[in-house]
Design brief:
With 303 residues, this protein is an alpha+beta fold. The chain folds into 2 domains: 132 residues, Immunoglobulin-like (Sandwich), CATH 2.60.40.10; 120 residues, Four Helix Bundle (Hemerythrin (Met), subunit A) (Up-down Bundle). It contains 7 helices and 11 strands.
Length: 303
Amino acid sequence: MSKLILTLCAILMFVPSAHAAISVTAEVDRQSVRVGDRVRVTVQATRTNAPDEPTPSHAGLQLGPEWEAGAQTAESERSDSTGRVKTWYFELTAVAETTSTITPVVILAQPPPEGLQLATNRVLGPPLSVTIQPPEVRPWWLPHPTTIGIIAGLAVSAFTVVRALRRRRQNRPRPVLSPYQEAMAMMEEVHANCREDRAPRFFADVERVLSGYLSRRMGRPLGSATASEMAALVSTYVSDAQTKSDLQAILNRCTTARFSGAKVGFTVLAETEDLTRSVLERLDTLWVTVTPTGETSPGGDRT
């Protein structure tokens, strides 16, 4: 029916309406569009309470070739104290660049009197002007909005997965290292400071490694113990004199470097690192654990 009305309106010439009691208005949702865009046209016919006037029945649009007409989307009707109002809604698609004129047409229900032209059975509304511009040319480097949305969605999903994995890794219980394993792992960090310009930091780290190892093996903190005190405490667990002598020599060297401020060459640093690793290995091998019952258990705790 809509196509029939559109065709009928297109072939009619403009003739002033003979029905003064019926007024037609129209509006379009956008005054400027691009090729490929869709617009919505609203046509409204108002009939006063005149007994001899026919009732608006259908509506259509006079269109040019620059439009592709869709079906009528909706229709509504209401009455009030002044008359009866009927509204139609149409959707159009712009297909060509131009300045277009859209004329609304309302067809009346009562057939025209005998001998009169068909034009007396219709009422034309004021024409609507719409500018149709060329389709938007998107730069080759600018992605389509849909593509941007997809990329953003993937980025958010990837971020969520990475964050979940990171939290899972952080919450995972860390393996408990033995005193020897922990000390040797710390020595790898000490090696990074085995440089002449970082000598004070190097000796401080070596002292921290040895003090931490002995504290864990003895089960008590030794942070404030001197080199001689640490060597004396080790005598309870290790009987090898050379190992105790080397341990005290390293701790004395660390103390001297901390307070003297003298420049230390790379050869001394490298020798201290190697000797520290050797002392840790010997301590762990020769260490004798004393149980609460007085029993002794030789050997280290390496796995």
